[in-house]
User: What shape does this take?
Amino acid sequence: MFITDIKYYRYGTPLKKPFKTSLRTVEVIESIYVFIETNVDGFVGVGEAVPTYVITGDTKGGIEAAIEEVFKPLLINKPLSKDLLQEIHEIIVGNTSAKAAIDMALYDLLAQDAELPLYKYLNHNPGNKSLETCYTVSLNEADEMVADALRYVREGYNHLKIKVGKDNVETDLNRLKALRNALPTKVILSADANQAWDEESAHYALKHFDEANLNIESIEQPVNRYEYSLLGELARGYHIPVMADESLFSPYDANQLIETGADKLWNIKLMKSGGIFQALKIHAIAKSHNVSCMVGCMMETHVSVTAALHFSLAADQVERVDFDAPLMVLQREVQGGIQYDKAKVFLSEGNGLGIDRAYLYKKVSS
Ligand SMILES: C[C@H](N)C(=O)N[C@@H](CCC(=O)O)C(=O)O
Ligand SMILES: [Mg+2]
Assistant: This one.
């Protein structure tokens, strides 16, 4: 089987309510859906990239340029093979979102060709893992965050990830206290600062989160991405477990985190790693150092989050997922792939990603 073309289009999916972090506000998920076509009738691989430029540096134009200028010349007329998964990383640095879309479309084709769902193609003995997603509470005034959190709990989510880091730490502390007081004790609360704090604020936050007995299960990425040793110091210095997110793009980053002691919890995302092939390498490092992994997402829709779920089911160090972005859309456009039963996530039947490719594809082929 040969690759004959790569096509793509932009698609905006509006959200039910704006998603707000310390870094940005999102009202519409801006996807680029990617299709790798082959010479075999009906054999198309699908992928998705999103332009989270404040985290990955990737823009819509940049993603499209990487496809046009680098991945098309590399892939068109080549036979489908696993070797291509490595080649897409060697040919260009960065551009992890475009790489992720190409990587998942290649995996979609490889697994379809093997007549297996992708997670079984990745791991022939995947076990029987049952995963629940957390749901993120956007960064707003305390009363709005409490109202949102109560609604998510009523809807069946047992773990809420609270965005923090926009104002001073005292304001975050008050928001977390209001949430803890309003919610049933069984609800797990974690926090995500998205790199907001400097060294002093991070120490202050972790000390006071510890002392306030808020039972915060973990704090994600308190400081800047490149502050590896500070992240390790925070991870070793407080009771509240620290999770690395923006500091973890690559296997190189994973080794840095091991060296500095930020080695308890990692958030792996395909848009950061550049897809499943590199995520598996990060996972292998996590496994050899017994790091517990979450797989998360950017503001992505069901295509790329389906790929992330296949990876999560195949990778035994993955114990939790943050796959809430597709739940936030006003209307689901993508059929097949990831399914939700309240917080529970599972896959539809089907080989490869299991996405209804025909529905998405008709927009590009018409
Ligand atoms: C959507 C998910 N719950 C989440 O919070 N993801 C990121 C930020 C996503 C984005 O800005 O697109 C995270 O920091 O974990
Ligand atoms: Mg995060």
User: Anything to note?
Assistant: DSSP finds 13 helices and 14 strands in the chain. Residues 5 and 37 are 5 Å apart (CA to CA).
